[in-house]
Amino acid sequence: MFGAIVNMLKRIIFRMKLQAMDEQWSMRFGYCFEMYPPSFYYLHTPEEQEAIIRRDVEAINKMIDQL
């Protein structure tokens, strides 16, 4: 029981740190130079990152082709 509470608190603290990191990233114009905030790379495996990036790039290319 106590271990579950400790693990939950660790996850909450980790998410709070990620949120603070993302806020700093956005305040320093991270959106201009990178596609995703830093938390994206902590929350997804490299395989998931590759699939998401590929999907988003394909969507962007479709939008460009429609112009």
Radius of gyration: 16 Å
Residue runs with pLDDT of under 50 for 5 or more positions: none
Instruction: State which percent range the strand residues make up.
Output: under 5%
What class would the helix/strand composition place it in?
A: mainly alpha
Q: Mind describing the biggest β-sheet?
A: none
List how many beta strands DSSP finds.
0
Report the helical percentage.
Answer: over 70%
Shape: elongated
**How many H/I helical runs?**
4
Query: What order do the helices and strands follow?
Result: HHHH
Q: On the 0-100 scale, what is the average pLDDT?
A: 92
Please name the defining characteristics of this protein.
single chain, 67 residues, 4 helices, 85% helix, mainly alpha
What's a quick, concise take on this entry?
Helix content is 85%, strand content 0%.
Describe this structure in words.
The protein is mostly helical. The protein is 85% helix and 0% strand. It has 4 helices and no strands. It has helices spanning 2-27, 30-33, 38-43, 46-66. The longest helix has 26 residues, at 2-27. The radius of gyration is 16 Å and the shape is elongated. The termini are far apart. The model has no long low-confidence stretch (mean pLDDT 92).
